[in-house]
What we know:
The structure is a homodimer.
Chain A: H1 16-23, H2 27-35, H3 44-57, H4 63-70, E1 75-78, H5 86-102, E2 106-110, H6 117-126, E3 131-134, H7 142-150, E4 155-160, E5 168-171, H8 175-187, E6 192-198, H9 204-221, E7 224-230, H10 234-242, H11 244-247, E8 251-253, H12 257-269, E9 279-281, E10 298-303, H13 306-318, E11 326-328, E12 330-335
Parallel strand pairs in A: 1-2, 1-3, 3-4, 4-5, 5-11, 6-7, 6-8, 8-9
Antiparallel strand pairs in A: 10-12
Helix pairs in contact in A: 1-2, 1-3, 5-13, 6-7, 8-9, 10-12
The structure holds a DNA duplex.
Amino acid sequence: MSQTPEQPLERSVPTSADVARLAGVSRATVSYVLNNTAAVRISEPTRRRVREAAEELGYVPHAAARSLRAGHTRMVLLPGTHIPVGPLYSRFLGEFQSALRRLDYTVVQYGGIGLDGDEAARAWAELRPVAVVSLGEVTLTPHGVDVLKRSGARAVITLGPRRVEGAHSLVMDQREVGGCAVTHLIGRGRRSIGVVMPEEHGLRMFCEPRFEGARNAAACKGARIEPLPMAYEVESAQALAARWRSLRLDAVFAYNDEYAMLLMRALQDEGIDVPRESAVVGADDLLLGRLLRPRLSTVAIDLVAGRRLAELVDRVVRDPGSEPEHHDLMTARPVHRESS
Amino acid sequence: MSQTPEQPLERSVPTSADVARLAGVSRATVSYVLNNTAAVRISEPTRRRVREAAEELGYVPHAAARSLRAGHTRMVLLPGTHIPVGPLYSRFLGEFQSALRRLDYTVVQYGGIGLDGDEAARAWAELRPVAVVSLGEVTLTPHGVDVLKRSGARAVITLGPRRVEGAHSLVMDQREVGGCAVTHLIGRGRRSIGVVMPEEHGLRMFCEPRFEGARNAAACKGARIEPLPMAYEVESAQALAARWRSLRLDAVFAYNDEYAMLLMRALQDEGIDVPRESAVVGADDLLLGRLLRPRLSTVAIDLVAGRRLAELVDRVVRDPGSEPEHHDLMTARPVHRESS
DNA sequence: TTGAAAGCGGTACCAT
DNA sequence: ATGGTACCGCTTTCAA
């Protein structure tokens, strides 16, 4: 029932010149009116004519042309984060983006999957963002940072396991998580501690530092650490549980709560008493962990508020000369329940 | 220990003109060399000089200038999806994006939070994307679709609960999920069925259609349906469980597996036998549901492959004249375990 | 093989 | 109060 007459397929997109023509004014006037330029007075009748013309043509300004002319953008680039990293991190990211928008930035996620660090940096630089906040999916090198800065980025901020030369680094040290879990277990009298290493590819960035932290903490206190490869599948957990007693472990840090729940169920099915025979600790403090019996001990992770990170971005954009800062983004804290 | 001399803060970004100057050639030549333009022969020594000059200056082309000149982009806009919608949907999204990149599109996520449908469409149109794939966070109106098309978008595709006039709509009908769950419960002999309605704000888009589907299915078969508001918190589930017997329900569809796990635990703690006294069904077929006792019945959701959606985008971009299509994106299928 | 120049769509300075 | 116009960075036709 659509009445729309078939329109010529390549109807060209209206420009400010079209609006000017239709309103019978110059392009300059169109620009003044549509941007409410304060420095210039335009009569009310003219304003109306311009606005009506724009409306009628369905005029939408061309962002690329505008920023080309302006010589800068308000774009904050978030190299795409598509790691499924749990509700905590999602909430943080959401907060961060809203806060940036309130500060009048345009947030754009642009993935760099399949590119190495420096290629990705180049691709990002082509967009001339005013700031780049790299969340660690692609590792930025000092050279990459330099490329971005030379292309006009006033703030380059990395969130990741370690500092990056030249950038403001928000250190999110996953080692703390592993350290925290193992310290807790040792405090509960455990001495032979397994550490689950997820076999899923995308998790390496998280699980390796967690393991390293666990190893370091154990080394301090003379405990034994055993890496335990395991996939997020029932069968994999069962296979691990089946050889559990031969491993002679009295505790396990299971990478996170989901792996912990999976492994704990498999251990129980194998007749292994948790926590008596083996303690289990997860991480992330998921709600679901509290529903298990025994209730799952975990490592709670507190992230800085997204708003604070947005403010840092804004401050650095306004004053790029300020010394790079290196904050801790994250703190870890053991939560003792019943499984340890 | 950084040797970098303090550089002038506003060192201007190198342009192709700078490269040309340094290499002693014209800007045209620079363009030819750096783009490997086939239609023109440039001598090898010249090529080398140009490349070296570009390298030395850290030249990165300006994407906005390029697309302004070209008159079009290869940008596919994904209005930002930051609803934490579970691993299924994340995987689908990841697949989709990689597939688009393989087809040589630039995928950009650009949020429209806090804008209404038409404002958002305008904001997106400013970027002149060649395609927009709206994943339903912001509801596109027919007018919004028109704005996008008039600004040059060759494909406008919506994924959501219903078709949108003028766009290619991939219908992802959450009603199926509710219908599937309730039909399953009725088939198991249940007649008074509660439907959990999450109180979390961002979930309304999903839970309302699921409820509607449940209601319709129940109406067909003469079963009773009761909406049950509940937050994703232990206390909320406990409160609901405490008044459970007064509700006189013999089954509950708990929105998804997470809410189901939460509620099932609360019911059990209240001494209510699952499934004898009340059956419980979730949705999403999470791995964790299989670990509970009784094992959680659920509704498995199959999404179309991301690659297929990417191919649709590409096809529509190449031939925008083709009739809008309206596919089903999703199918739901009951998985009977022990809780129902 | 290379260069000169036009033009993409806006913005803002300088005239009028 | 408005118009003319130069310019942002890049590509591409045409001429040399």
